């Protein structure tokens, strides 16, 4: 069996460290308090009930606490639930850390950053290159670690950078196939399109939306950032406006959050590249969990479809 | 009969000055060139054909030229058309000017600006007041003359200012009726909500969209402006973000151009006030042209509805 | 802490009278019967479980029974639940009555009725005034007490009247700002627009829909009422038809229940006033429950949005 | 060639009487006035231009005037146009009348009325029967002659009655196939469902919408009529409400004009019967005009579809 | 009380045989395993919990096992639940069989098949008749027993055949009322329209979708079948194409699964007949379960409507 | 000036050969017949009027006739129109042929076919390879010459093959970037996805829809073809079904003509690749016609958007 809670089946025994993602107090039908824990590691998450808790339990078993747990995977209302036999908080001598329990991009962030840097070097339009370089530098820390989203696709540490680098490869190949496209503009759009997520999302481990993320969203924030940076770098010329348009329009339609649809060739292509990479990331990871001849779970961000893995796939 | 082309009926004789809005060359079935003129004054516009033209005619009868014209209002394919008996360009001694032929707000722009200034004086939140004051000052010239839109509502000189001042009256009364609302925030939202139109639209007389108007639109541009101005004035605090949200969300829904819907009470109210004032402006002007017992033309921006004026209205 | 169940937090002890809104029998996993009670007072409602009940319990703890209850507010599946320590039915000496536990309009119904009467006095069109007066008289009893809806907005005793009077203030101010509007027609529309609710809804305390409410709805019922009353009062003239149209179209669109959209200026304005007042009522009450810096619960009737209360609001 | 303008092809000579449906004055590129005539007979309509007209022509060639015309069917901008060689108004000795040029139901109205009467005789529920009988009597004149619509289906003299009688046959058969259905209720719904058209439409020959048709529509008007008639006949009982519901819901969905969807079995069936008969009427008439192997014109009321007549149909 | 679980009310005692439809293991709050059973007979289904189970219980109480059960119908979270007092698997001497617990068409399949055969005999177009005959023969076994759907309408043994025969009656009558229609084509469409369900659905008792059902659906599969059969029978001529079109378009719209809408008269009629029969089947069965004066449950496939049975219906 | 009618501007003189695409007779206001010609060459098309024609003219100037024409490009109702000074049919000695006037893929069809053959050679799954090879062979003639559509994208000779080969390059690169994808399946889907167009479209020069194209569409026809070919080649295994699913689902959504959405990873990717290549083809060709700083015409198949070519693009 592959390691990690995402690979357990109903009936499997569990004996490992795992991270508490959330913890909520309830009162059972016998009047005793209990905790509903959401436990996670890098492969997935599972619910567990800790019955008849003490006051100390409530103070110990809190979010971001790692625990040592033995139990069994059961089913409750059609979903897996981890039945707890024993549980204790981890201690220093256990040698476990929060980051061990968090999914990460399948490529090291240093490698990803190197590829990003290479792409920037390839750019020849000085206005575009300078803006991209300055913004990447300004948000480098977040860029190295943030996920690309809170769920659905690339929702892991360095997911944003992974998504960008994967899209850059796509952009490069598409530019070769359609040489009429402006590669520099495409690269700039790819690199900056979701950089606003660094301000929209709250952080890396338990990611939620910031207040400005909720009230403005990453798209208008990034449009403003580009405007500011152009002023700061004293860059004039249509590149600034066009780049702002690429960011603004990359969701493709008003109802998907882009007040203007793509009106520039590279804006249209950026939107399509984003779509392809996000969907392939979701699909590959969902299909990785099933055997040939099986269907995946329903994938919410893919119109709730459940995908089939053909028998002739040797997985 | 009220003066102005908007008040003519089929069969009426015409003998007056009028402004050429557009002019396009065609070739008639007899092989002779002709001009299709769109003529306008402050009350409306009408098409006319100038048959068998000379080269000079083509050079003289161009947009923004005032002409002296005699003719008759006919009907062609169900729409009024001005049959030309005689036409000549105006000259200095005629004492007519372009601005005489352009619709203007029914209130003088100085009066409107005074009312706007009063409203700003009423504001007590220093962050909001300073931002509003600075942005009004920065865009004062456009604010005094721009229309609120290229068509549909307040599409006349100083229409933007007229719309703002009318909405301020609404805001004041609604704040009295719903005292829980924050008047300063509401005022700031009303004053700035469409100020980006000064950058989105090309000018006052023959208004079209600028390139940045087409690629970004007035909403993201104004969000950026507020961010910039706050930096310039070194204003911190949630007011900046909240005000940006009011601007961003004032169209109410993603499909109407607001990537975030209103998530603040005053943002919701701003959206509704904008709706009420725009619709009443359209309705009042359309109903002003018909008699009791008649229906207006179809109003595109009101879902193509045609409105009825009851018989018991004394017009 | 403000009084009332709507103001309790998880962990608070409860010791007070409260009204049973509904009661349903279940069987626990230990095979013993229990009751799921929905308890309410004027500020909100909460679920509670009464475990291991007797036959008598089932007969005593029924809807509209007031009970004396001690307990604690817990959380169950993410929602508050009142854990019962002790419970007994109220008795005569307790001095509590059902109406103490029901939300009421924040203004006394006599005051509201007075304002309504004043508005009717202002009306000068005799046809409209006579119809309004007669219908208000006919349905006065329901008008004084009915809610404006079963949920969402003005869903409290005298909510309908409160909504009408609030809209009348709005109508008065809007007529001042847009003097072209016909005030009498607007008043008549406001007063009668939802009067059919008195026939559509079943009553004041535990409000549901009547059979004719389900099969016809308040809009066609009120259109018919106006037609009947006009016949009874022998009123001729376009006012009858126009008023019927205002009622018919006040939901604004076919998909919202108006087979005809507003085709009269005052019909459009009536629709907008109704929207403004309903939304402000929902928003003010939802925001009243949260502190600055917090978001409200999702508001179903406002597209499921969750609204933010800015930090600079002094609540 | 079948008689009637609907059967002419491009190039055919025309020499017959025909009715002027509408007449509009224009001015040609040579400055001379002309008339655009819409000419019709019972089989269709065609446009014609009458060039270089005199004042008398304008007074003579007006709507509802029959003319004797020779000419040729040409094509103009892809549509047939009748080129006029000679034209004169008909006179008494011509022996032609307006009603000869108007399409009529393929069955005599007396026969239709007899079938309607038979159906009413079949009804056994006294409340339903009395209401139907009274309303049919009240609107008998219009019922005998009105079309069922201004266009799309049964848009000919006695079209409404033809539609009702055809639906009654359907209702009878469906009741046999689904004996659980209440035949009396179904009959009552069928007979009354569109009777409000008699008030919604302006008349038989050049049919448009009345003011109350535009502002209320036939559905709410008929609901009110049924309520009134029940009062007049002092009929109590659920039949009145249920019958009102059938009328109200027979368009099937809010966006199609029914504020309540069918919530009674017979209401659902009424909606479906109406659909079947309207569509078959449109389809049969459109396919009657084409040969096997051809497609019909696009049918607007059938989602703009163009239908194919198979080769194996013997026409 | 009518026999069958579909006719029980809360509080009723149960003592009868019943079939296990599905069985899922869970762990209760006391740590003991239990089974959640879905039990069914021909009249409906109900949930039951079997507490504190043994390993053997898990092996015995599995899908398609008949059990003898005593218990009581309770309510849990608003839905009926069968509280188990005693349960045992049926044995040979009980004389019960799976097919006794499965709903069947109200008419014997032999009778239905006879009617189908008669209809085929009536057909006169040799191409259509031969294709229909051959396909009915090829799929006769499935046709005799398959349901028409997994849920919503005709979801019982021989439901498909029942649906076809009922539609044939409708088709016959509609052809009489609209004699322009091609009866043979209509019959062929009716008989074959859902025959692909025999390949789309997995079987008769616990019906789910086959892999090709999920990936292609019954419509394209049947189009292919008709093409193949025509080749096999060496049938040429437009009938093959037209019949394929009828099958392809019978869902009426692209969003309902028909890539082409009906473009042939009989295709449109087939779609409508299918609609009428499916809806009447659902409605009749839902209304059969309620008393006059009551509403049915919400019917998902009828837009979630809840239908009313009038008081004047004698049930 | 680039050669070809697509590169002319208003006022340009024309003196060249051109092909008649369509010809329609009309009658002018002076009573004389004329022809409306649509003229085309490989770069575009233009309307022209041939006034006062003779009978012979009507017989000579017919579709697919090449003519020698002198004239001038004018504007009529906002669209270019070619004013004819002289016109004559081409003759043998002119050395012009129809195919000179038809747009072709920018790559020779032999080169394209070679690339297709290479891709087939790369395939390793024998079932997929054999089916693809056999179908390409069967439809080779059409595949070499057909357009990919009647309008919008790749609507030129060999457009279908050009589209396939371009998508194969995309598929190859995407397989490299996402190695989890099955390249053989992707190639098979790409090659066959639109092959049904060879049966759906009528031909190469004046392309319209065939009857089976209208009644079935290329998707169900190709699904059937694959099924037939698999039978003929006696290929079993899931590959057949999966490949049929890829074809069936490649439009992505039911409302776009795919009764099943993609439920296989490669089906999703096929849909996206198709989208990218079709859109880039449209965009590149539209932008090729405008200068930097200009907007293209509205592109119907791209939601009617008009795209901007930035100033910094060197054209």
TrEMBL record, chains A, B, C, D, E, F:
Residues 163-279 form the HD domain. The keyword Hydrolase applies. It comes from the Bacteria. Transmembrane segments: none annotated. CDD domains: HDc (cd00077), YhaM_OBF_like (cd04492). Keywords: Exonuclease, Hydrolase, Nuclease. This is 3'-5' exoribonuclease YhaM. One of its GO terms (biological process) is rRNA 3'-end processing. One of its GO terms (molecular function) is nucleic acid binding. InterPro entries: HD/PDEase_dom, HD_domain, NA-bd_OB-fold, NA-bd_OB_tRNA, YhaM_exoribonuc/phosphodiest. The keyword Disulfide bond does not apply.
